[in-house]
Write a structure and sequence with these properties.
The protein is α+β, with helices and mostly antiparallel strands and 378 residues long. It is 32% helix and 24% strand.
Length: 378
Amino acid sequence: MDAYVTGSGQFLPGAAVGNAEMEAHIGRISPRARRMGQLMLRRNGIRSRHYAIDAEGNSRWTVAKLGAAAIADLLSRAELDRAAIGFLATATTQNDLMVPGLASGVQAESGLAPLEVASLQSVCASSMMALKAAALQVAAGEHRAALTVGAEFASRYFQPGQYRGTDTLADDDTLPGDAEFLRWTLSDGAAALLIEDRPSARGLSLRIDWISQRSFADRFAPCMTGGAVRKADGALVPWSLIGDIHKAAQAGAFQLRQDVEALHRMLPVWLAELMRLIDEKRVVPEEVDWFLCHFSAHVLREEMTRLATRAGCMIPAERWFTNLYDKGNVGAASPFLMIDDLLRSGALTPGQRILCAVPESGQCIMAYAMLTVVGEKQ
């Protein structure tokens, strides 16, 4: 049995925030830190994004509420009665609570009737984990329809109060690069997909041909981390093993960090996964009509393009579809945001093939998915 994406929705909180207004939302640490931030913005190329906090650092949102808002947008345009949904899979980098899982929170906020749930937590690739879980449930005949949601609320971790008084902030009021990069790159929002065992009666749907997701944690140490303190020898100590929550906070255990150098070392591995799929005839670059590649920064796109061109597997730039520059890097929500925007663009026609690529820096994961456009264009 096949599985199809028959509906999509998204929610981006507040008005779009341009680069000039960005610091007013995440908070100003120091003039020197701001100069570092401007460098990060030039590297990532993002022009605007959305935040679930206001200029005073207040918020009425949670990750669960953002996810529920995306579901509400989807269901407002879906043909399906919500009572037919039997499975919900959620994806996020960090839930609102340590316990219980995000799927329970999203179900409660959405008012969905009793159903099977799965909470997937990683970084960006958790979206593909959730999509595969939903697609397999539907394809196996377990459920006629399923929802998958990616939601993020990263900005709550980037306010000055998260750094002041910790060992992370240097004497000159600057942050290390692995903290600054994420602070000026990640933003908030949610997106959702509806998966059914049949295409929509009207309009276009996306048949899920296959999803490939592989972890390379056997080769890489953690790259993007939160909830731990890195010792002098590079080992990570989980905050819960430090024994004193105040000492853990002082050491910066609750901050998001990313080793940018390690990130670049992962690029050849991610590309090798594409080459493996080409060798297996699952991907034929000339037959890909749309390439939805999630990347966190423009400089990474440039590097991926350079490596793919040298390897002879470059998908032409005119077939790339991205919304990074205007909607930002929304982590686990980004792949679904791209799918929703492409579905709404009016650019799809039946028979076209869409290749999704979602690299994750957490501890090196690479996910690809092939979708085929089916149905009739309205």
